[in-house]
Records
---
Amino acid sequence: MINYLIFISLVLILSILIYILFNIKNREASSSGNNQNLQNKLNEVSNDINKIEVDLASVTTPINELNRFLGGNVTTGRLGEWSLESIVRDIMPSNSYNFQDKINPESNDLVDCSITTAEGIIIPIDSKFYAGQYKNFQSASTDTDRNKILNKLRNAILNDAEEISNKYLLKNTTSNYVVLYIPSEKLIDLVGQISGLRQESFTEKNTLILGPNTLAAFLDMVRAGHHYLKLNETASKVARVVRKIQREFSDLDLSTESVLKKLDLASKDVHGLQRRVNVLGRELKKGAEDLEEEKES
């Protein structure tokens, strides 16, 4: 609506200038002595008209581009891809995703994004932007027209769901479902108004419909799996180290017992030797005393 108001306003300005031009021309034509002034004014008005035409072209060009963008062409799809990439990069580990990925080696089809879970399963994600249907829904004036638009949106989403599931689901490689990403919460609200659409898409087309918020929550759960995998890997490494240390302590304990036994035997030998030395000392002392008594005698 705003686009048309801008266009009409510019046309009205151009019409007023043309009207002024003819009035000036008629007034100046009645005065034969002012031909030069008439020519100068005509040149000025002509320049103004040319400038308005240039400005009009500069305004209508982005308007046309905007209409083409919102009409559902390739550029609109690219916006969906940018939104998808931004969310994935913000949440997922850098080694867990690929953009424009060729999942099926026997096909040239490229999925917008593939996510690899901690278990090594690939989840295909493809983005679709139904901006044209949303625009038509907003401009519809009756419930009948809005219901017709919602029905067309339903058919378009189910067709896309079937297409991407046929393209990107591979046995023993991908998950048993694909994700259809719609990069607009307003469009997701329209999807919510279509009774049974999400359920039908998931059960019959193996396609999960997600918007920006729900995709972020979904990816966060997948990311948690990667963290749990890292924790499990770390726990396994720690367990291996602990088991190794436990074995070393067990061997050390056995060695300690052996040393204690040897020390105990050595202690007994020392005590035995000490007794022998004591006995020998007493005998030597007694012998020395006997010798001393004999000497005195």
---
Amino acid sequence: MASAAQSAIWRAGTTTGAGTEPTTQNGTEDIIEFNSGAVVNNNGVLISTKFSMTSAVAVNEMPSSIDKLQDTGVNGIIVYITGSIEHPKTDGLDPAQKFKTWMLEDKTINETNKVFPKGRFGLRLNDFNALNLTPTADRGYILSDVEFTRNGETSGKLEFIATLRFNGSIGTPSGGKYEW
């Protein structure tokens, strides 16, 4: 864990030589931290996290009968993170610009010593670690969507929904758990 923040989203491969979470937060690192030691002034919070896993089910049509279903494995793992940042641009920290940059630049990277072909985004949620992932050559999150909301009645507050999609090998369970 890089800081006292309870949650963090980061992009690997630029200021980090590995997929690990950056250890500092001064505005230049590719990380956004939340909850207790969070972005700017402890007023960045994650409001909710939604986790969706879907199975790919093939339908074998049967005339005059109920169609037979075939489980063909996991179709997708998607994490939706809803958050709010009060005073989002203070002391050089600008999470909206970071999200914008992350969306406009490559979501995967394959450079010497920085190999993230499956996705270069990591996630840490201390209170819900089943979703935690440090990007590797085998797996990573891809930031596929970011929505910003600025409520006109509340100045100095930015709300967002970020969508992370799991890509790569799900691995094998260890002790009954899939650890990423």
